[in-house]
Amino acid sequence: MGWFKRFLGLQAPATTSSSFATGPLGLSMGAGIRFDASLKLLLADNSRVAIPGDQAVYSEGLVDLGQSEWLSRYYLDDEDYWLQVHTSGGIDGQVKSIILFNYLSNQAVNSEAELRRLAGPDSLIGQPTYSLDGVEYQREWGTEAGQTELVPLREQVSKPDETFAFESHSMLYARDTGLTNRREFLLFSVEQYADGSVSLVTSLGISLYMTDLQTL
Fold first, then answer.
1. What pLDDT score was predicted for residue 23?
2. Which domain of life is it from (predicted)?
3. Collapsing DSSP states into helix, strand and coil, what is residue 142?
4. Which residue of 13, 70, 161, 183 pairs with 165 in a disulfide if CB–CB is 3.0 to 4.6 A?
């Protein structure tokens, strides 16, 4: 897997001075978010994703996908949750998808052998399907019949007291929930930070409508 060798030789990203403005749906650092109260009941028998109460955006991330496509990521005060908005035509352009993610795990990677086992050639991540707790998900990225390469992303992050960037290699899986236009997503992300630390972050998400949340 070419991404694996490139990742091992990757220089840690440096601090950046990037700035953020109000993004899609009026979201920005410090903004409040309220989720529709009916979501908990709707998802109860269809998804493991938990819906939080009112939240404030503690920090925000931005991923430039190229060709005027963007991922805006909002990390909430309750650190178990984060929200992703995919837009085209600009950061605050046409909303293509909204996904609320729950963190499942954040596992430190301390060696090359551990990386190979957890997310590299010796793992199941990147295969066409992935089963988690008996639930099967289909791979969203890559067309190979077998294991495919993880997708490189660079995210710029703004917090109240600092801004920085980090590199990741990610793989997205999804499944139908049986609810109209609502899919459940399983996201794996191998993340490397400026201090040289590497983590495998696993998140479970559910697709939302714009009417499922409001900015406070």
1. 86
2. Bacteria
3. coil
4. 13
Expressed in angstroms, the distance from the first to the final Cα of the chain is: 45
Residue 196, phi-psi category: left (phi > 0), alpha (psi -120 to 50), beta (remainder): left
Return the number of other C-beta atoms located less than 10 Å from residue 32's C-beta.
14
In DSSP notation, 62-117 reads EEEEETTEEEEEEEESSTTEEEEEEEESSTTSEEEEEEEEEEEEEEEE-SHHHHHH
Long-range Cβ pairs for the range 194-198 (8 Å, 24+): 194/12, 194/13, 194/14, 194/15, 194/164, 194/166, 195/12, 196/12, 197/108, 198/108, 198/109, 198/115
Residue burial 142-180, b: 16+ Cβ < 10 Å; e: rest = beeeebbbbbebebbbbeeeeebbbbbbbbbbbbebeee
User: What are the pLDDT digits (tens) for 119-152?
Assistant: 999 999 999 999 999 999 999 999 999 999 999 9
The residue-averaged pLDDT of 185-207 equals 95
What pLDDT is stored for residue 195 in this prediction?
86
Q: How far apart are CA 56 and CA 62, in angstroms?
A: 17
Average pLDDT of the residues of the chain: 91
Give CA–CA dist 148/41, Å, rounded. 36
